[in-house]
């Protein structure tokens, strides 16, 4: 049985996908389609109880774009919780993306390249149709 995400959280993530900020849109233009070092990122990925701006699931890297309204204490607690779930969070401000996108991409690529690939989780009882059994 597949795990289901919280319906309200999922709807909020879909809404955020449709209405990205200018800075998220700009960063996504450089991350989409595995353009950055071949790393595949997803936008507005749900890792309950959070929605992450960008996630590279194969290595557990989360990239967050923060505006002036972000609460550093809540962000610290969130990053700590995500770290305990095996994720590394990189945070960049809107100004970082506006003024130094190349530098942001360099940092993301350096960190992504240094992370090991995560262990793939497979279902203990494979589907007969998909697994050819």
Summarize the structure.
The chain contains five helices and four strands; from the N terminus they run H-H-E-E-E-H-E-H-H.
Salient structural properties:
alpha+beta; 5 helices; 133 residues; Endonuclease, Chain A
Number of strands: 4
Uncertain runs are: 127-133
Share of residues in strands: 15-25%
Average pLDDT, to the nearest integer?
A: 87
Task: Please provide the ordered H/E string of secondary-structure elements.
Answer: HHEEEHEHH
Q: Tell me the helix content.
A: 40-55%
Physical arrangement of strands within the biggest beta sheet: 1-2-3-4
CATH class: Alpha Beta
Biggest β-sheet strands, sense, barrel? 4 strands, mixed
What's the total helix number?
5
The structural class is alpha+beta
Q: How would you describe the shape?
A: globular
CATH architecture term: 3-Layer(aba) Sandwich
Distance between the termini: 19 Å
Oligomer description:
single chain
**Count of structural domains:** 1
In CATH, the homologous superfamily goes by the name VSR Endonuclease
If you consult CATH, what is the topology? Answer: Endonuclease, Chain A
Radius of gyration: 16 Å
Can you offer a commentary on this structure?
The chain has helices at 7-18, 22-31, 72-84, 94-114, 128-131; strands at residues 42-47, 50-56, 61-66, 88-93. With 133 residues, the chain is α+β, with helices and mostly antiparallel strands. It has one domain (7-112): VSR Endonuclease (Endonuclease, Chain A), CATH 3.40.960. A 4-stranded mixed β-sheet has the order 1-2-3-4, sandwiched between helices.
């Amino acid at each position: 049985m597949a795990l289901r995400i919280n319906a309200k959280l999922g709807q909020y993530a879909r809404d955020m996908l449709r209405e990205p900020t200018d800075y998220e849109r700009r960063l996504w233009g450089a991350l989409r389609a595995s353009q950055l070092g071949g790393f595949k990122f997803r936008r507005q990925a749900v890792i309950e109880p959070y929605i992450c701006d960008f996630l590279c699931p194969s290595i557990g890297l989360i990239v967050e774009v923060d505006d002036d309204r972000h609460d550093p204490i809540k962000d610290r607690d969130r990053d700590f919780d995500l770290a305990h779930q095996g994720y590394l969070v990189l945070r960049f401000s809107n100004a970082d993306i506006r003024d130094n996108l190349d530098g942001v991409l360099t940092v993301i690529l350096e960190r992504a390249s240094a992370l090991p690939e995560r262990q793939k989780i497979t279902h203990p009882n494979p589907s007969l149709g998909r697994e050819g059994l």
